[in-house]
Amino acid sequence: MKPDPLKQLIQCFQRAATSEESQAMSIADDKLYVDYADVMAKSVHIEDDDDDGGGDEGDIDQAEKEEATQALRAEQAILADRGAAIMCLMYLSSSNGEPSDMVAQTLQLGIHLLSGGNKDIQKMLIDYLQLKKDVRFFTSLAGLMNKCSVLNLEMFERQIKAEGLGMGAELAAGNHQNLNDADFTCSLFRFLQLTCEGHNLDFQNYLRTQPGHTTSVNLINSTVDYLLRLQESVMDFYWHYSSKEVIDEGGKEYFLRAIQVCSQVFNTLTESIQGPCVGNQMTLANSRLWDAINGFFFLFAHMMEKLYKNSTQLELLREFLNLQKDMIVLMLSMLEGNVLNGPIGKQMVDALVESQQCVEMILKFSDMFLKLKDLTTSQAFQDFDTNKDGWISPKEFQRAMEAQKMYSVEEITYLMMCTDVNNDGKVDYMEFTERFHNPARDIGFNLAVLLTNLKEHITNDPRLEKIIEKASSLLEYFDPFLGRIEIMGSSKRVEKIYFEIQESWLEQWSKQQIRDSKNAFLFNVLQDDGGDQGKLEAFINFCEDTIFEMQHAAEISAGEGSDVKMERAIKQRDYFLQQTSAGEQLSKTFLASYDYGLSAANALRPENLQKTVKYAANQFKTLTWMQLLIQLFKILIVLGKNVFLAIWFVIQTVFRFGFYLMTPEEDHDTSKQQPALPSPREDRFSSNREQLYEQMNAHKARDIDVFGVHVHAQDVPDIPEDPIPSDPKPTSNGTLPSEPKPSTVPPPPEDDGFLKPPGPVPSAPGSASPKSPSVYDAQSIGSQQFVAVPIESEVDPNAYYEPKIAEMSSARAKGSIMNVLARNYKTFEKTTLYLAFFINVILLFHRVNIQEPEDGENVGNGEDDDNDGEAVEAVYISGIEISYFDYTITGWMLAQTLYWISVFHAIASFALLMSFYQLKIPLITFKREKEVARRLMFAGCWITEDENEERGVLDTFMWYLDRIVISSKSFPMKYWDKFVRRKTKHKYRDQVDEETLNALLGAERAPGDTSFDYRYTCWLWLGVILTNGQFLYRVFYLMCSACGVFISPFFYAFHLIDVVLSFPMLKAILQSVTHNLQQLILTVMMTLVVVYLYTVLAFNFFRKFYVQEGEDGEEPDRKCHNMLTCFIYHFYAGVRAGGGIGDEIESPYGDELEYPRMLYDISFFFFVIVILVSIMQGLIIDAFGELRDQQESATEKLESSCFICDIGKETFDRMPRGFEIHTTKEHNFANYLFFLQHLVNKDDTEYTGQESYIREKYDNRDWEFFPVGECFVKQYEDQLLQS
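That's the EF-hand domain-containing protein sequence above. Prediction below.
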């Protein structure tokens, strides 16, 4: 077996880390380890943290994010499986709490290995720590925290004085003083945060206490102690600048450093308690964290007051607001799993009361700036902008605020201090609103969540009620956007969850099509007695379908109404530039109409008409024949051009629709194509790993593999042209000179020596101090020359290699015309209905003209004599006389009107079909893909199911069709879980061999593959589109419209069926016929059997009564001398007759079979007319009544019990909050849907503990988190009633 050089190298470093303490100094200065740790860290490609929290959640592509995550896991596994993670622990333990370059680089390597919350590496680390009981690791981390510097005002002042004398460089260059080590400090706390990432409860508890160790170190308290030191140092800087009007650049730099470190410490503490970790929560609650929080509240309030007044300080203000947001998130995490009147909640209220003045200042600022948008977008304020250019003078701005009476005099004075003017002395009020409203909204929402949480968990506290009263306007503002639900937590207690509802979600939820879907779901699910699990399963399916429908509706309406309110407010300036008041607009309209009327009347005067005609005639007479031909030729060219363009537009539209109809939706934006690499970042890594994965080739020549670790050219440190110089110049300690930064180096040379590690460098001749002993000499491997040998990766490249998939949320420029049609689906639907109704009104004026043939007309024409004398019928449209106006609309006018309206109806029907395809087919496809994916993933269909099982013909056809699509490279296209096949392979790999799974599930689409996927397209059309009744109805609708244009207008009578489908009441009548359709069909079949029995009796015994005498010598009509004719006659005439078949045949009186005939007639009447026909009528009537009762029952059930918890209304009537508040706030039907959408869009590394718990349950299709039969109010009923 070939040795693994990377593993050997890491083992060498591990042995060095566990060497004697006398060699510790040598380890700290080990340049070789630092260089290789840097190479290893760069081989794990992580994305930079987004300071804004990840951007817009709605724009996250889940599939691409999953691809990047799996690529990161594979890169981390390469190092972790060879011991790199354990090596990091060893080196941190050996540091003995002394900062150095070795510790800094070890922390960076650990961050890269743990990035993304790698649970496998976390388990590997904690298993090692528990096995070795390594106390030095925790003591070293605590020592490093103690050595981390904070701001030093005294040193800062000395530095300023020294810089004035030209001597401040040495003071500013201190490594571990005055936060010059901010990056090192952030790395330390970031490493601690990542050990708990993903709410690793074991590691969270282990940071607090280490059971079984000789010494237990509480790193949580150590972190709080450092945070308190840092907060006090920042307060010193604040007092230094409190008397100054502006914070200078030097002070701003130190403030930004402190904010960076504080933010990281807050994030670390937040991650250590989320889950929740009750032990760490109580540790923080009993620590000095509240002192730090009170200090930060004071700092935030006074810095906001100071920095808002100067536009040059807005960058620093924004950072302070982000830090405040991180602190509020920490406080919310402290309340995870909060119980009614819990100790942590009470301590938090005490902290808020202690800082009440500062909290009220923050609330005042937030409320003041939140109202700016309502102020500047109001019509009354816009009237002050007389020029409609978005600029007003400060005096006008002040008068506008005073006129609105939204602010007090003190607030108006403060806002005027915050304004900036241009060279003309005017204020851009839209820019002013945007600058202050958005940050206030971010901070205000988090405060609203915190206060709402405390309000609902802490009762009978007048101090909290006073703060809530001060924040009433803030809470009222955010109430529509503050979603709250209740869940059954992991501790089997009802817990509350708070989250943000996007404004776009509320807009989509209010759309008519979403309301119709909701009503239909509620009606169906409340009638289906499938139990609680069945109801919750149906509810989750409805939520998934509705979320996709809302996302799709937002995508197709992106060009029309996707602007949020703030963007619309900014654009309102242009709107007001183009608009006038209603009175002015009417005046201009009437004036223009009057002018046009005068001009038309003047032009139509007889003398002017004569002049015009005379002038045209004279001009025509002066033209020569050549000029006349030229003018006619020009007219023909213009007409031909316009006709050609119109025809070309129609043909292009038809072919484009056909192309879009047949082509699956794929994003062809080449700028977003995924590289054929595991790297998720194309801008940093542009080549493949040839030596690491033998099946991936064509990498760039400058990419290298060092000990199995792949490094790209741009990540390689600077190497001299001669890697092993003949006369090296070592440093004083015998190590190689430090490398310059990669950003300043040219590309490395192509040299074999570049792949070798730095060898031992001889000491300079005459060196006074001998070379210090190397930590590698004792291992007898120091002189071994390692070369880069390709090794087989232990990680399957298929585990993280993913093809380019279709994006879900990106707006496509392709199909913009289709999107316009989809946005107007309801308009086309109503237009076609109204046109069909108008066409059928015109059809009422059709007449039949009967023309008698003249004598001799058919003589000699070779026709049969039987046709002689027959009348000829012709259908035509008669005119309409309007008597009141003495006007007649001729038949020709009606015929032309009918024709062109029919053409327009056909075009509208075609547009309706296209809009239905664009609007509805994606949702139908999503449902089918979800059905197939769920059956594949959870039921093992097509894997464990036998294809020889008994099924119906249609079910067998669909089974094989679905089996084809799961092996297509484009599946799934619409369903958001793009990795369902990979998950299925992982789930069933122990039951089915890998070859069978690969053959069944097929291969993934390769990146850049734009080939036509015929399997998916066939499934899409045969299994989805052409099996959908609504689509087939629209196709039939278009075909009838086309037949009405080209064959007969009477085809438009079928379009009136659309009236039944357009009105809910008429649709209910139709449902009454189809509700009991099976029983109705069986009853008709029974009627046919009974009628057939009577036919047999009539044919054998009573056929003489069915003979009707002919007229004028014609033969008699024998209805029952043929069995088939007799059966048809009985069914046609007997069932329709009120008295049965006896009313339609000859009377039996006086006949020898008189009494048998009477018995025959009476029995037919009784069994067929009285019983069977009445049964059919009763089925229809009963179905109508049943549907009405079901509707009333569903409405009554919704009004009398909660949909989520199924607790009756009478239970809440004795509670303080009542049933209405429970269903609209605590268990709101829509909020659970919005939370699922929030969960799907949010990055899983940003989940809270409760969100992680619900996501895990959701992925496993486990609905235990729904509080069925329980709610927060019922759980704490006794305490609430006492309060």
